[in-house]
Design a protein that fits this description.
83 residues, five-stranded antiparallel β-sheet, 5 strands, 40% helix
Amino acid sequence: MSTIIVLVLMFLIFYFLLIRPQQKQQKRIKEMHANLQKGDRIVTIGGIHGTIDAIDENKLIVDVDGNIKLTFDRNAVRETVNE
């Protein structure tokens, strides 16, 4: 009986320390990707900073330096920059 309690306790510890925080982070990233809009300042996974110039269902065009525009997959956005 004590073995079962120890196993359940270990599962609960793993759930609250590893699984649940990862699920929250994935949900937050998914919401951020869904709320991207033209004009948002972003940072890509590769570290490129820019402003969204155009946005499609799966792609976005990022204005990097005023006249340089790069196309990225929507999932390549790491974060939005709030200034």
